[in-house]
Amino acid sequence: KFSIFILLIIFRFLSLTVLLTLGDDFGYDGITGPNYWGERYRECAGKHQSPININILHVKHIILPDIEFIGFDDSIDDVHVTNNGHTVLIEVKNEPHPRVRGGPLDGDYIFSQMHFHWGDNDTFGSEDTINHRSFPMELHMVFFKEEYGTPTNAVKHHDGLTVLAFFYELDRHQHPAYDDITSALANVTEPYTSVAMSHPFSFLNILPYDLKRYFTYKGSLTTPPCSEVVIWLDFEQPIRLTHDQIETFREIKSAHGKITHNFRPIQPIGDRIVFYNIDNSYFSYNTIDEDEEEHKDTHPKRKKHRNNAQNILSNYTLILCNVLLLVYGIHLSPLISEVSFTTDF
Ligand SMILES: *[C@@H]1O[C@H](CO)[C@@H](O)[C@H](O)[C@H]1NC(C)=O
Ligand SMILES: *[C@@H]1O[C@H](CO)[C@@H](O)[C@H](O)[C@H]1NC(C)=O
Ligand SMILES: [Zn+2]
Hints:
By secondary structure, the chain is α+β, with helices and mostly antiparallel strands. The protein is built from eight helices and 16 strands. It folds into two domains: about 250 residues, Roll (Carbonic Anhydrase II), CATH 3.10.200; about 60 residues, no CATH class. Strand 4 and strand 5 form a beta hairpin. The C terminus is likely disordered.
């Protein structure tokens, strides 16, 4: 029995040594911490690094085409949760993988993996910050450009990866879609362990409702080798979890004990511009108007004005009706919201 124990210790020691010599040697504190990454990985000292602080006053408003989220509502049955010693990874084993296109992206990007960054307590933990506000946790969904074949090859190209980043914020109510993840976490607290998720998994279920408003900028991986190949999309609406749900992530261990934090501090923004994609439904509304005009009217301008005036009038009429009906205790608001948001969906 004793010799088996010794053998296990030797095996463990050897596997750790192998991992370390493979370059898996960065951490978040002391001499392996972010301040020293640049010594071993030159790109970590680059000028277009991530994460950054996004200053809302300095973003450039733009209207990009809608992002297409393909396969995000599929129910995926072969999903693995892995503790890689730095974070928790979620990987999809069956094909086809979900993909994204549109927005600022040129071409299709295929899902590679998703993982999380968190902090010691709920006051910080996200990597990017917004107006220097930190969030307790951040989700990174990593996609590689289909044209480049594999994630490893994609990292050699300046537009090789896109990361969809989502912030978390605290809620008093549990997010049910996260129960499967947190129960899987309990089985991978030890480093370099992995477990298959017990139920099918859908991307859309774990994301916020609003996928239209986001910031986008060009940056890097936030872990060594810090390759400057990432088109970042930071979605504005956070995902809401309870304190206890976030706390389960802090139980995850590396070879050196609990991973209490694994976020890189913000990096200089340099000469980069952060773009802010605002909701484009207002503009598609006008486009629909113009299409109709081409067929029906020889005086598009006049008709458009009349249309807008009519719309405003009918909206006011509805609001007036709603107020009146409210007085009588009848609620018409579902109708109002349906009318004003028809172009959203
Ligand atoms: C969170 O952690 C930081 C750093 O360890 C500490 O300064 C701060 O007081 C903590 N906040 C709370 C609310 O525990
Ligand atoms: C993890 O362990 C718990 C028991 O501790 C078990 O109920 C669960 O099914 C396991 N697996 C996953 C993927 O959650
Ligand atoms: Zn990350």
